[in-house]
Write a structure and sequence with these properties.
The chain is of the alpha+beta class. The chain folds into 3 domains: about 90 residues, 3-Layer(aba) Sandwich (Rossmann fold), CATH 3.40.50; about 55 residues, 2-Layer Sandwich (Dna Ligase, domain 1); about 200 residues, 2-Layer Sandwich (D-amino Acid Aminotransferase, Chain A, domain 1). The chain is about 25% helix and about 30% strand. It contains 10 helices and 21 strands. Strand 12 and strand 13 form a beta hairpin. Helix 2 runs parallel beside helix 3 and helix 3 packs antiparallel against helix 4.
Length: about 375
């Protein structure tokens, strides 16, 4: 079996680490020959994942094709599907999800609860929707890892909005942010991972801590699982999907966004669950039975991101001390250069209960830092 991955970042890297357990020949398409996944695949192809001809030629080499980022040429994937290449998730699912306007429209059409929204085509239209403030303005396409999102609280904030097709989404009072990863096999079978709770860095809008499983009342848990299943069924595609949701202050569950791929909110599954999200996606791609999503223990996750003011060759301060900690698992993504806010790795912490893992997570957060010895330090 020949498997292709569009994109060679850390998600591709961890997918390839799982692929080593299977009889599969792996291909990666990525512009950067020094990307995290480049040295782990059997065949690396340097090229633009957004170029039609490049993606089409790459896809013709493989039996099954997947993505590690949504910013790919969907038209090429549609043509490959027509010619018999299995594309997972489907081109139509990627086309819907990569555009936040299409995502919100899908939720609306299938009565999937999400925050009220309006679509804007240009920045000047924002003045017509002052009653929506405070709101979040989300770029239709191109946003990633907190980029392409602006919070507009008052009229004076409107110049920060996007002068391009975007979603203006009314802010809701959030009690918790959670995510559920759902696996959908080629035969339509499904498996859900327990929900995780996400705590974000308010400045970078990147995941800071993550706790698994999320602490939710039973009724809220059932509601979240039902909504996550409804989302993936609406997409009508095999694959692995991360459904990010809000639990508001009234206990209602609202879908925020969906990712059609392995996801940051599932990194902890490598050690903390019987079947990792990466192994699960391999099973889906190879048309094997879905794996066991049960947790082995309570876990927490800390993102390793480039420290403020440091730009240059990455140096992991406190790595030796972190590696001495029990039930703490360090994953470095192999990126040679660091800059403020860049994802450089993650750490999974396992323990007997929430207090135990959060104590260790806090310790990791203050011990391990990504800096640079050849730095531009302001």
């Amino acid at each position: 079996m020949k498997m292709g991955i569009l994109g060679g970042g850390q998600l591709g890297r961890m997918l390839l680490q799982a692929a080593a357990n299977y009889t599969v020949t792996t291909y990666v398409l990525e512009n950067d020959p020094q990307c995290p996944a480049a040295h782990l695949c059997h065949y690396f192809v340097q090229g633009d994942i957004q170029d039609f001809d490049t993606v089409y030629r790459f896809g013709k080499q493989v039996d099954v094709l997947t993505i590690e980022i949504e910013a790919v040429n969907v038209a090429a994937l549609e043509k490959l599907e027509q010619e018999g290449v299995r594309v997972i998730p489907s081109a139509s699912a990627i086309r819907t999800i990569k555009n936040k306007i299409h995502q919100k429209t899908l939720y609306q059409a299938h009565a999937i609860p999400s925050a009220p929204f309006v679509v804007t085509q240009q920045q000047t239209e924002l003045t017509e929707h002052l009653h929506f403030l405070p709101a979040v303005h989300k770029l239709g396409e191109g946003g990633y890892d907190g980029k392409g999102v602006q919070i507009l609280r008052i009229e004076a904030d409107l110049p920060q909005g996007f002068n391009a097709p975007a979603v203006l989404e009314k802010m809701v009072p959030i009690a918790k942010e959670i995510a559920i990863i759902v696996a959908v096999g080629q035969d339509g079978s499904t498996a859900l991972y327990p929900p995780v709770e996400m705590l974000f860095d308010p400045i970078l809008n990147l995941l800071d801590y993550q706790l698994a499983p999320a602490s939710l009342p039973e009724q809220t848990l059932w509601r979240a699982e039902a909504i996550a299943l409804k989302v993936v069924k609406a997409l009508q595609s095999a694959g692995l999907f991360a459904v990010e949701m809000f639990v508001d202050t009234h206990g209602e569950v609202l879908v925020n966004e969906t990712a059609p791929r392995v996801h940051n909110s599932g990194h902890h599954t490598i050690e903390a669950h019987e079947c990792s999200q990466y192994d699960m996606l391999l099973r889906i791609l190879l048309n094997y039975p879905l794996g066991n999503t049960n947790a082995r223990s309570t876990s927490a996750l800390v993102n390793l991101i480039g420290a403020p003011n440091y730009v240059g060759s990455a140096y992991y301060e406190g790595l030796q001390d972190t590696l001495r900690m029990e039930n703490v698992y360090v994953h470095l993504y192999g990126k040679q250069q660091t800059k403020p806010g860049r994802k450089m790795g993650h750490v999974t912490i396992m323990g007997k209960d929430v207090t135990d893992v959060m104590h260790k997570a806090n310790l990791v957060k203050h011990t391990l830092k990504v800096i640079s010895k050849n730095t531009i330090h302001e």
